[in-house]
Amino acid sequence: MTGTTEIPPPPWRRPQKPARQRRPLSQELIVDTAMRILDAEGLDALSMRRVAMELQTGPASLYAHVANKDELLELMIDRITGELDVPAPDPDRWQEQVVEAGMAAHRVWTRHPGIARAALANIPLGPNALHYTEAILALLRAGGVPDERAGMFVDRLSLYILADAVEDSLHRERRTEEETRQYYEQVRDYFHSLPADRFPVITSMVGALVDGGGDERLRYGLELLVRGLASYATGRRAPADRPD
Amino acid sequence: MTGTTEIPPPPWRRPQKPARQRRPLSQELIVDTAMRILDAEGLDALSMRRVAMELQTGPASLYAHVANKDELLELMIDRITGELDVPAPDPDRWQEQVVEAGMAAHRVWTRHPGIARAALANIPLGPNALHYTEAILALLRAGGVPDERAGMFVDRLSLYILADAVEDSLHRERRTEEETRQYYEQVRDYFHSLPADRFPVITSMVGALVDGGGDERLRYGLELLVRGLASYATGRRAPADRPD
DNA sequence: GCGGTCATGGGAACATCGTTCGCCACGGGC
DNA sequence: GCCCGTGGCGAACGATGTTCCCATGACCGC
């Protein structure tokens, strides 16, 4: 804060003072910059030193507002959890709603490249995560899922979504889009080149093994989980549980 | 240079030569010792230096037999994949068989603490992994699952198993058995202390959220996936797909 | 036999990383 | 008006994966 009765600064000292501007360095500011680095360059580029540099200071300064890197990651994860959104329950469409919510959550995680890796470590329990859990549970309850089933289901669901996001980030980080295509081409050829007598099943179904992009696989897993949950329903069959 | 006409070694230098025994340092030997360290102290303790120290040499020596740490991890993962086992297909029990195979695979991964984290990065494609995939696919085919479904299913199944193993290892590494119990106690209390008007669903089903150990949760997820897969069956209902 | 070549073995160093130590400057309470 | 606590931060510590460069020793063509 520049005082009210400031003396006219000597001209040759002029450029130094504004460069040394008093940036009040708070936990929020630190998380802000960390998020910016994460979104732009991924988790591997996020180091304490990098954050400090962005704030034009040394790494030691951060530790006054953040216990360590793990806490910083937790704060970031909690903030990201706040971006998760769940639709209002529609009992007739609960299965599709759960699948769509899962797809949306996956999109949120991959929007911040690599952070899913850290999120897998700390089960989030902040207010944002609670709201999300509450909303999913409401969806399930509206669909008639008994509580004992629903409780564990949300746990398994978020584990699956995070795992897929982690896998995505790990693959994306070492290959470009084009290299990934070539890689899958090679895998396909490799499968085809296998001896059919030792791998009769694999060689006869290469297409089913390697076809399908990330989104398709993700959705398939979500559907497996949801239909599995629906299969426990005792009396009435859930609406979407018909053969296709 | 020790010439051909070697002078008789001084007695006090004697014990040095056998200690400096020529250990021929091969890729297999490196993987062996790395596995020993992993099993005894976990993935975090596994560093190039640690492996080199165990072999009484410097870290640089390893790079003649192993391109880098990632390749070493890949070799270890491939070896571990060889421990995976799948029962011979019994068409009447294919659902239980898949679940049991999943539980067994999880046991293999957690027997080598932390390695699942690395396995999530590199989808294994070595011969051992192929045999495993082949066996699971045979199980599914015997159960009457169409190929297009089965292909993606094995992918999702192993992703889920690995994810659960990763979660386990991450939690186990920061807390002892007793601390974990206390931790869950705290979570339970925390859930109970939440305002019921803002979190009506969560507060009314705390038990369903926190109860159940790791194995129970793992099995539940496996059953979700398998029952989900069975629900696609068009004609006949799969044997185990009855309400309970 | 013998000299040269080349892969293996390894000591030292480099570039990072997360984190801690100790000092500096400032600002509000006695 | 002094004084002490606290935020800021340069420097350093210990660890990591990896590379440089040199010594050693075995093999191979002459």
From TrEMBL, chains A, B:
Keywords: DNA-binding, Transcription, Transcription regulation
Keyword DNA-binding in record: yes
GO terms assigned for molecular function: DNA-binding transcription factor activity; transcription cis-regulatory region binding
Gene3D superfamilies: Tetracycline Repressor, domain 2
Annotated GO biological process: negative regulation of DNA-templated transcription
Highest taxon listed in the record's lineage: Bacteria
UniProt keyword annotation of Transmembrane helix present: no
Annotated HTH tetR-type domain residues: 24-84
Annotated region described as Disordered, given as residue ranges: 1-24
Comp. bias (Basic residues): 14-23
DNA-binding region: 47-66
Protein name according to UniProt: Transcriptional regulator
Originating organism: Actinoallomurus iriomotensis
